[in-house]
Amino acid sequence: MSFLKAEWRKLAFANYEVDPNILAAYVPPGTELDLYKGKCFVSLIGFLFLDTKIKGIKIPFHSKVEEVNLRFYVKRLENNTWKRGAVFIKEIVSKPMLTFVANTIYNEHYETMPMKYIWEENTKNRSVAYHWEKNKIWQSFKVTAALETIKIEENSETEFITEHYWGYAKVNDIITNEYQVTHPRWEQYKVESSEIIVDFELVYGKDFKFLNTIKPTSIMLIEGSKITIEGKKTIKKETL
């Protein structure tokens, strides 16, 4: 049985090209940075958790949970096959139960904050916005896009960003937690405009202050799907 089942819907991505050296201290043992055409990315992502179940049991008051996270991309070679995954700098959610479970079991970096979301449609387009409050200062990420989904092109940047099916969490300099995320291939909406009002230093720490002064290289809006998160596996780095 999967550890967690849910739906992830209306995933808004803002992707920033960064110097790989900035992420060096965050890379879990046994993994290495995963680059797209030589480019290293971090992504700000907002979405909605729906119908969340842990071990098949619905969590009361968790039928809808907002999440905003900052992540980057790694890969791990196992049995001559690359596993492509994501590492989270921080995951912000609106409900404390998810924070407790993720931080306790998976050694992730969740934090509970006041949050809200707005999904709107008219005859021309849709808008998706996620808001979260840190130290009484509201942050926001809004995307306006087309009404209909389109397929994600193979070998595209969008495919690279969205098609990572493993999660990695650094426990210490020797141990890494690994878990699998399953979902069908996603579809996207053509983005028309976006607005990001985020103090990255306040929310994510001084290492990411520089994101306040650069623009994202791409903005994406992905429909999402049902997903599962499987039980964790502990990886121990071999020592000489």
Task: Give a structural overview.
It is a single chain. The protein is mainly beta and 240 residues long. It has one domain (4-236): Acetoacetate decarboxylase-like, CATH 2.40.400. It is 10% helix and 57% strand. The protein contains four helices and 15 strands. The chain has helices at residues 20-23, 96-105, 157-162, 200-204; strands spanning 4-18, 32-33, 40-54, 57-58, 64-78, 81-93, 110-112, 115-121, 126-134, 137-151, 166-170, 175-182, 187-197, 218-229, 233-236. Strands 1-3-5-6-11-12-14 form a seven-stranded mixed beta barrel. A hairpin with a 2-residue loop joins strand 5 and strand 6 (81-93). The longest helix has 10 residues, at 96-105. It is globular, with a radius of gyration of 17 Å. The N and C termini lie far apart (37 Å). 32% of the residues are buried.
Helix-strand topology string: EHEEEEEHEEEEHEEEHEE
Structural class call reads mainly beta
Fraction in helix = 10-25%
Q: Can you summarize the main beta sheet?
A: 7 strands, mixed, barrel
The overall number of domains is 1
Which sequence of strands runs across the widest sheet?
Answer: 1-3-5-6-11-12-14
Low-confidence segments: none
Strand percent estimate: over 45%
Shape: globular
